[in-house]
Amino acid sequence: MFPRDGGHRLHVRLAGNPQGRPVLVLHGGPGSGCGPRLAELYDPARCLIILPDQRGAGLSEPHGATQANTTPHLIDDLEALRTHLGIARWCVTGGSWGACLALAYAQAHPQACTALVLRSSFLPGMGNVNHFFAGLAVQYPAAWAALDAASRGPGVSAAPRLLDRLAQALADEPTRARAAALAWWRYEQHIAAPEAPPPPDPSPEQGAALVRKYRLQAHYLQAGCFLDEAEFLARCRDVPVPVHLIHGLDDQVCPTVNTRRLAEFLPRARVRWVAGCGHDPFNAGMRAAWEEAIDGVADAASSATLP
After folding, report:
1. Phi, psi (5° rounding) for residue 98?
2. Domain made up of 2-124+227-298: CATH architecture
3. Which residue among 60, 96, 120, 151 is the active-site one?
4. Which of 60, 91, 202, 236 allows an S-S link to 301, with CB 3.0 to 4.6 Å?
5. pLDDT of 70-94, one tens digit each?
6. How far apart are CA 24 and CA 235, in angstroms?
7. Of residues 8, 27, 244, 279, which has the active-site annotation?
8. Distance from C-alpha of 290 to C-alpha of 71, rounded to nearest angstrom
9. Catalytic site residue 251?
């Protein structure tokens, strides 16, 4: 547990080879945490794999806390963690929201990065938010209608934006909050893999964790992830290291236009499209492209010196 300001303690897991090339893993969400499978995407013989749960996410404490929790806080946390671990430079990797955070970190601390490997990139601002909560309603009307219905009810005002109604429901009494979280989770699962059978409902403990996760995610999304999209894209021009952009051609959660736009601004972008793949990091084609990119940059990363 890595103590930070505002009463936060970050859960940080180290895996792989302590003498290997350091690779930072940034999870998505915001609020998801580094699930146990993420480490499978890296070679444990060659890499020191660093998996921090961001503020309020995963096993970090306080669980689901939104106070003192913004993107600038997360960037400062990562730089403090790098210094604490005695790492000179590391390869920064991430998927979805984690890709966006990786770029924001590299913009603030370019000297700390050897390369970036990013999957299914999310962009800050309200464009992606509007796409997910409104734009997909035509393509997935039944799934969207179920989410919209869960956002309404006693204690929830008639806010115009679906996201705002969901945030209110998630802050309501436990039964109402759990229903909203489950509806958000089911919608997200369906959009990510529309042809897959519906997954079984989570346990009560998992349901409580989903409430915390989506409260935190709503906190970020309502604020456009605390980043201005135009400024974010402009600052990508100043990222001096290679950036590997990998994106599934069937991704509906984070549309392919995100990577196309990033490639226009990143001077050393290398784009890899994966056919037959949506938002799933463990899709066979995505995994192969990801592991190839990680292997390609591992030798360029600086070695780590642990205290």
Report:
1. -60, -30
2. 3-Layer(aba) Sandwich (3.40)
3. 96
4. 91
5. 999 999 999 999 999 999 999 999 9
6. 21
7. 279
8. 25
9. yes
